[in-house]
Fold:
Amino acid sequence: MRLALAQLNPLVGDLLGNAARITSARRNAESRHAELVLTPELSLWGYPPRDLLLQPSRLLEQTQALEQLVQDLSADQSDVSLLVGVALPADDTRAPSLHNSVVLVNRHGWTPVAQKQLLPSYDVFDERRYFRPGPGPCLLRWPDGLRIGLTICEDLWVEDDIQRERLDGPDPIAALQPEKPDLLINLAASPFDSAKPSLRRDLARQAARRLGCPVLYLNQVGSNDELVFDGGSFVMASDGTTLLDLPFCQESLMVWSSSDSNLTPTLTAAGSSQERLFRALVLGVRDYATKCGFRQALLGLSGGIDSALVAAIATAALGADRVSVLLMPSPWSSAGSIDDAMALAKRLELSSHTLPIQTLMEGFDLILQPALGQAPSGVTAENLQSRIRGTLLMAVANQQGQLLLTTGNKSELAVGYCTLYGDMNGGLAVIGDLYKTSVFSLCEWLDSDESLRCREDLGLPTSDELIGQAIRTKPPSAELRPDQKDSDSLPDYDLLDALLIPLIEERRSVEELIAAGHKPGLVKRVEQLLKRTEFKRRQAAPLLKVSSQAFGSGWRLPIASA
Structure:
């Protein structure tokens, strides 16, 4: 049997458009003599559809989309069948009223063949809001006698010894064992984080060994809001050998035959963890801009490492001709930072404008003096500079219809080293899920020879360093007062991130960190900063999730708490 793995990039809620994408993939697969085309979880909807699932008109549109798939197959006189991810109503009036399902579509109609049994409602997932669990096992019997086991995303995540947390519920793999399937297909929409690619393969390898059959793992690709789906689909033999790899962070269709299980593997280069991270961020910016209707992007370029990295990501995502930068020096901006920012803009071939803010600073001082009894000073004066820059950026972005990209990192967002209505202004926080130490590491990789192939592939300059040593080695500074350094207000980022990672990613307590050897005063200070900054994070731009725990829909702490 020849099966096509269609690694698709859907637009959430565009049911008819997604059906057209599936038909295009089917025609491509048919030209390669495929018999069955696999599409990702909820492929008609795009994942995650969230409260679009609660709109009755969308469910009617889903029926139209399925009928369109059938009509297209009939018009083409095609004998190819499709596995399509849909949301099917339950047969009663109880809530939740839907099943996360898979239907088999051919030119004679469509038939439900699988329902998701394990429904994630942790981190960014909220499936129990919309779906009820389905029964198992899910087995599709093909006309030639082939027995195909079907699972949907989380249904594969049933190994306590491999994954971080296993949902309470049935074991869909164990339920399939008595059925002795010839193949297992897992249709997924699994978001990216750095640990996911290897973890998915470990889970698939264990399922292949338990069932004694090959596993076809098909993942969605593309970015939807904060979530980046990296694709990385694959076919794995019953002994755990990888037989086929689909590309990372791009749409693809590959055909695999069930008679090829002992042939030489067809593999694609996955790249290093830094390359995967960079490509995920590039994909995130590209899709966020495109799917939200923006053709151009804007950011403030300071000469610091954060804005330099965001500029590089945006350039790779959209092209240099669609990215603009503003340099907004104050009296406290160093000549080196201005020169570094201008040099970076030139290397990336970005359109740039310099808007000095000293006159605006003086104007604010003059206007506020009667109300304050003196000129603004201290943090107030520093925040005013950030808000002046934020206002200028928003004005230009509004006038020119650009997506404003914020440039703050996760370490700053964690402890509040950022300004509401200032440097937090924007439509997307590109590196809001990268700790400062991760920013340095990614920039070092970008400036190494290891990144040249990736840079060339993404249209970035390869003749020299991209970020530049001057930017990478500069002590971090907001430059809001003379000779200011981030270390004046914060612990060194190595120390800070060593505390933030367990506090955020692992939800470790102050007591646990102190027992692990960290200084009590420092731990308590950082924990308090993290807690007190929750009100800022609620007002921050959406960010691209690339870690196991990002600030966003998966971070749900109260603002006011003990």
Summary: The chain has a mean pLDDT of 95. The first strand starts at residue 2 and ends at 7. The chain has two domains: 2-259, 277-537.
